[in-house]
Write a structure and sequence with these properties.
By secondary structure, this protein is of the alpha/beta class. The chain has helices at about 10-15, 50-55, 125-140, 155-165, 180-185, 205-215, 265-270, 295-300, 310-335; strands at about 25-30, 35-40, 45-50, 70-75, 80-85, 90-95, 105-110, 115-120, 140-150, 170-175, 195-200, 240, 250. Bound molecules: guanosine-5'-triphosphate, magnesium ion and zinc ion.
Length: about 350
């Protein structure tokens, strides 16, 4: 595989310039394991690790390679290949790691477009869609909403309307990952060298869609449970694959939860109707509670300029992000006092 097929371009050539001539080569991370990364380097795939000094210097998972990253690799015969550096990213999609841990997790890097999949078979949720849209915009990628399993849904219209209401300028498409027509529908985003990441709950059809776009059954898929239509977490790792259209696709394991890590720009773009109101409350430290005197947000809601569910969703997501910030500051304070290991 040619590097240009993987998305190697002028900006990357420039970023790689300082490394040229030192026996180092560029490659793209196509799979991440615990502590090793599979890097596509032209035809061959090398399994590389990172030097101890990189582990030590890393302030968090953002400083480590992720699927989609362009990396600088030192490969000598008889030696384990080493990733010496990660080239600058155009975008990075992260979330709060699942479970109780206060940790960021990188899902993918250098993603142009995120296909946010929601199933029309009972999976659809406007609130979850807002969350996915916020994270995608925060990452610096373009969201496209795909309402999948159209063939299983008799009355999709209310969900389409709802999706369009919260998606703002993002395109909302209806599709069936089993139908060849979907290929044509998605063509505008499947440009050569474009990187697309699939996101959505388990069982929503991410791997089925990948197979349709691949034109072969390469990714494993699994039937949803009868009783609640939930998936069985069939895909267990993220992987970047080259499609016949020459676009690059990252299939991902279904998410149980998508906790926001940072999201200021993402929230601004996902809740544009609120932007003119923030900072307009009577008190600078307004907590934006419904009973608060002089809260501009709730005043706008009462005046019919804002919808209650949107305002409540915004406040919930903002609170989640602030809470994360508070915990992070607390953790940094403890690290400085030498009481805790690195975050
Ligand atoms: N009827 C119908 N079934 C679909 C469609 N898309 C996916 N499925 C089915 O839904 C089930 C789950 O699909 P997968 O592609 O494995 O789902 P996934 O999103 O990759 O799930 P995880 O890997 O667990 O995250 C499979 O049985 C698919 O055949 C669709 O558009 N219509
Ligand atoms: Mg899958
Ligand atoms: Zn307020």
């Amino acid at each position: 595989m040619d590097l240009s097929e993987l998305g190697w371009n002028d900006a990357l050539i420039k970023a790689f310039e300082p490394w040229r001539g030192q026996g180092l080569r560029p490659g793209r991370v196509i799979r991440a394991h615990r502590g090793t990364w599979d890097v596509q380097m032209g035809e061959e795939v090398l399994t590389a690790r990172i030097p101890g000094s990189t582990w030590k210097k890393a302030r968090g998972p953002r400083d480590l390679p992720a699927v989609g990253d362009w990396v600088v690799v030192k490969a000598a015969p008889g030696r384990r290949p080493l990733i010496r550096d990660v080239l600058p990213r155009t975008s990075v999609f992260t979330r709060k790691a699942a479970g109780g841990r206060e940790k960021e997790q990188v899902i993918a890097a250098n993603v142009d477009t995120v296909f946010i999949l929601m199933g029309l078979d009972g999976d659809f949720s406007a609130r979850r869609l807002e969350r996915y849209l916020t994270a995608t915009r925060e990452a610096g990628s373009l969201p496209v909403v795909l309402l999948n399993k159209l063939d299983l849904c008799e009355h999709p219209q209310p969900m389409i309307d709802e999706a369009r209401r919260v998606a703002g300028p993002a395109t909302v498409e209806l599709c069936s990952a089993l139908s060849p027509e979907t290929l044509l529908l998605l063509e505008p985003w499947l440009r050569p060298q474009a990187t697309i990441c699939l996101l959505g709950s388990s069982g929503v059809g991410k791997s089925t869609l990948t197979n349709l776009l691949l034109g072969e059954q390469r990714q494993q898929t699994g039937a949803v449970r009868d009783k609640d239509k939930k998936g069985r977490h069939t895909t267990t790792h993220r992987e970047l694959v080259l499609l016949p259209s020459q676009a690059l696709m990252i299939d991902t394991p279904g998410m149980r939860e998508l906790g926001l890590w940072e999201a200021s720009a993402g929230l601004d773009q996902t809740f544009p109707e609120l932007q003119g109101l923030i900072g307009q409350c009577r008190w600078r430290d307004c907590g934006h509670g419904e009973e608060e005197q002089g809260c501009a947000l709730w005043a706008a809601m009462t005046a019919g300029e804002l919808e209650r569910d949107r305002l409540e969703a915004f406040l919930l997501l903002s609170e989640e992000v602030s809470e994360r910030g508070r915990k992070r500051e607390e953790a940094i304070r403890l690290v400085k006092k030498g009481r805790r290991k690195k975050v």
